[in-house]
Amino acid sequence: MEVESTTKETESQKFALPVDSEHKATEFRLFSVAKPHMRAFHLSWVSFFSCFVSTFAAPPLIPIIRDNLNLTATDIGNAGIASVSGAVFARVAMGTACDLFGPRLASASLILLTAPAVYFTAMASSPVSFLLVRFFTGFSLATFVSTQFWMSSMFSAPVVGTANGVAGGWGNLGGGATQLIMPVVFSVIRDVGAVKFTAWRIAFFIPALFQMLSAFTILIFGQDMPDGNFYGLKKSGDKPKDKFSNVFYHGVTNYRGWILALTYGYCFGVELTIDNIIAEYFYDRFNLNLHTAGMIAASFGLANVVSRPGGGILSDLVAKRFGMRGRLWALWLVQTIGGVLCVILGLVGSLSASIVVMILFSMFVQAACGLTFGVVPFVSRRSLGVISGMTGGGGNVGAVLTQLIFFKGSRYSKERGITLMGIMIIFCSLPIALIYFPQWGGMICGPSSEKKTTEEEYYMSEWTAKEREKGFHEASMKFSENSRSERGRKVDSVTRPDEALP
Prior knowledge:
Residues 40-441 form the Major facilitator superfamily (MFS) profile domain. By secondary structure, the protein is mainly alpha-helical.
């Protein structure tokens, strides 16, 4: 026992942060760049930020681009839908790639593959070509999945919601930052001497270059897991080589992932929709100039600096007392309030009131995103990437459907579309009540008093007896041990033994 204790102490000394038995950090130190945990955090959010800047670089310049390319309202709506639809399947594929190859290679590869589309935006000459470049650029949003997978691989249960929330929120910040960046870049290039129809094209070289640099930084400085990269761990035998079919099967057959995909479609999906329409909404409805409309629109995305991280932190805080049930209740409540505020945003008619309600709405809808990924890491240990991809893809599906129904063409005014979108948020949040973990319970019911399921039983069910004989399940066993905190203080832990299954 003394030798075992000494070994554990020696292993923990390899890391700057305190770690659990999986070597995941049990603390989240925001201003640290310690390798590998906090370095992975900063690399992930910066790269995701760059992809958000690229994907939403066009909306703040739409009033200029539409005059240059003769875009109709339908063309603009289709381009907005295209920008978020490409990532639907890309996110599911990214989740699987993370499970099989690791988040480092998966994210860097996608960023480099989509960077040319950002450069080609400067060459768009028709509504069709503009739609295509926005479609292919939007694939880069799948880096969100690698960001959340990376954080869930680096941080332990008590802080994983915080890590996911801050990384996702600061990455999403790019959707607001680009509302400020692109008009300024455009103005500088125009003032230097370029005509406005040339200036907007040159401006797209800035986000494209930023995106490429972030990919190379990940490849050089990133690390997949606390103990090394996937390739090295598999080669040394420390990580088993899993089959795509098994990983995919256990992900898509877990109904909790599908519910989270639906509900995420009406928090993150709504955020993507607002990023696409809000600048034009204020520009047209309140007769503002381009710069002012961009600054107001930017405040929606910039709220991510505190709102989504706040959701992740709230998820971890309520879990300390109420466990997983607290995480689910907090998610439902915050997302429903966001829906109510969205309804109000579409009804108010003054500029000042619209700005206030929009900021409040942004805080709640983005916090719901952080709360969602406070739950995701616990749905599956073996298929974490697939569940993350399904949930992330659901966000893009929600954005596509919302824009198709409410913001394509002139069927609804934008204010009417925003109100109806709020009603959708409220109704699509209700299925959260159906999520139930046998070892922890759900919103309505606690864990069964008759069948006392343990964490080990839940996560071991993803492995066959033959796979367990080979030791493939060992990482799941460690995760089970570290996830007992999801019982919460209110749960009588004595009724469910702590001993791991043999």
